[in-house]
Design brief:
- The chain is an alpha+beta fold.
- It folds into two domains: about 40-140 and about 300-395, RlpA-like domain (Barwin-like endoglucanases); about 140-295, Beta Barrel (Ribosomal Protein L25, Chain P), CATH 2.40.240.50.
- About 20% of the residues lie in helices and about 25% in strands.
- It has nine helices and 17 strands.
- It has helices at about 65-75, 90-105, 110-120, 190-195, 210-220, 245-255, 265-275, 280, 370-380; strands at about 40-45, 120-125, 135-140, 145-150, 155-160, 165-170, 175-180, 185, 205, 220-225, 230-240, 290-295, 310-315, 325-335, 340-350, 360-370, 380-390.
- A six-stranded mixed beta barrel has the order 3-16-13-15-14-17. A six-stranded mixed beta sheet has the order 5-9-4-10-11-12.
- The radius of gyration is 22 Å and the shape is globular.
- It starts with about 40 loop residues before the first strand and ends in a 17-residue tail after the last strand.
Length: about 400
């Protein structure tokens, strides 16, 4: 992906099928926007409100790599345009990541690491959808599908590259479609694109099922296994500028799948049994995604690799990108073929953006690649709390570099 590109969210309408787990509250509007001039983060000044990081301090697998990815993004001059965020400067964001990486490299774990973090870092909490900190956590993943670079009897459903007439602004926002006379008009919606055949000649790869194409659109990337066995990644290049609309919600509202059984697997099952209905339902979502061949692992909107459980996607217009976060919620695990929902507390880096992840009440957790990750992502739909950590001023020098151990 290119910088500032969106990695679209998971089919984030799944309700856990297990009993006894925290369920989202129907009365809450998770996508409620911030009032003008308000910030998504509030600095915690009461020590009793600071979360206990101890459970997350035992397993730091993948954290250093995720921090390095954020530091790589922040090393680019273009990243400076998004700071300051409140009292958080670009230099402070960088120093915070360097200090955290130093702590986890020190060998401290458990309560000792928790104490060091609490001592050295200020903690900010997301105001959430209700100004009480409630955030809805969903999951996304990278699917792996069979495919072909050319059309065949089996592979007939294409992914398309970005058309030349699609116009973005300097921030990467989609402005629309540029006509021959230079006028910019809204880009056509999914239904119009598919029925007009306007993208003929821009195919990049073909898949075997129409719903697989749609899942690739929703997830924002896919790994395609070619007939010769090669595994090729196709990542997000752009979208048509329309807002995302959930097909899963439509299936539930029309009584096709019970709300407590909705998952990515149940949607595949429904459309496998009703293949003629795929287009009718997917065209209810006007957003259409364009792809590009991509080297290496899947990448997020910062053009950095996404790491399972260490990368989250938020609304980048209201949260400080590439920053260190800590979140508490319930996440699914698969044991002996069954899904269990367990409490989860972990550190992650804010490195991605979701098409439906809007407002302070939403957060998407990257789960991984393949069918198992997709199954878990499809069962991720839980409330929780989201925190951001930044190095306290006294642990930095006036030049913006980390204070020495002696100075501390």
């Amino acid at each position: 992906m290119r910088a500032r590109i969106l990695l679209l969210p998971a089919l984030a309408v799944t309700i856990t099928i297990l009993t006894g787990c925290q369920r989202p509250q129907a009365k809450l509007q998770y996508d409620k926007p911030l009032p003008p001039g308000e910030l998504a983060l509030r600095k915690i000044t009461n020590p009793e409100e600071i979360p206990d990081f101890t459970d997350a301090c035992h397993n730091v697998t993948g954290l250093a790599r995720a921090v390095d990815n954020s530091l790589n993004y922040l090393s680019k001059p273009s990243s400076k345009r998004y700071f300051p965020y409140a009292d958080i400067t670009h230099a402070r964001a960088v120093d915070s990541l360097k200090a955290f990486k130093k702590l986890i490299a020190s060998g401290l774990r458990g309560r000792e690491l928790n104490s060091a973090i609490a001592q050295q870092f200020d903690v900010y909490i997301s105001v959430g959808c209700d100004y009480a900190g409630t955030v809805l956590f969903t999951g996304y993943y990278t699917p792996i599908f069979d495919g072909s670079p050319s059309r065949s009897a089996r592979f007939t459903y294409p992914l398309y590259r970005k058309p030349e007439d699609l116009v973005k602004n300097s921030e990467g926002d989609i402005l629309g479609r540029r006509s021959g006379d230079g006028q910019i008009t809204p880009y056509p919606a999914r239904a119009d694109i598919e029925t007009s055949n306007m993208l003929a000649g821009k195919e990049v790869v073909y898949l075997a099922e129409a719903f697989e194409v749609y899942v690739a659109h929703v997830q924002g990337s896919a790994k395609i296994k070619m007939p010769d066995g090669r595994l090729v990644t196709y990542g997000y290049a752009a979208n048509n500028g329309h807002e995302y609309k959930s097909v899963g919600r439509e299936l539930v509202s029309r009584g096709k799948i019970p709300a407590d059984r909705l998952s990515l697997s149940s949607m595949f099952d429904y459309f496998n049994a009703n293949p003629m209905l795929v287009r009718m339902y997917t065209r209810l979502n006007p957003r259409f995604v364009f792809f590009q061949r991509q080297q290496g692992p899947p990448r997020g909107s910062l053009n950095e690799p996404v790491i399972p459980y260490r990368t989250i996607a938020t609304d980048k217009s209201i949260y400080p990108r590439a920053s260190l976060t800590f979140f508490t919620t319930n996440l699914p695990r698969k044991i002996a073929g069954r899904i269990y929902i367990d409490p989860y507390r972990g550190f992650a880096l804010d490195q991605d953006t979701g098409g439906a992840i809007r407002a302070p009440g939403r957060c998407d957790v990257y789960i991984g690649q393949g069918d198992t990750a997709g199954n878990l992502a499809g069962h991720t739909y839980q409330e929780g709390r989201l925190y951001y950590l930044f190095l306290k001023p006294q642990y930095r020098t006036t030049r913006g570099t980390l204070a020495s151990a002696k100075a501390r």
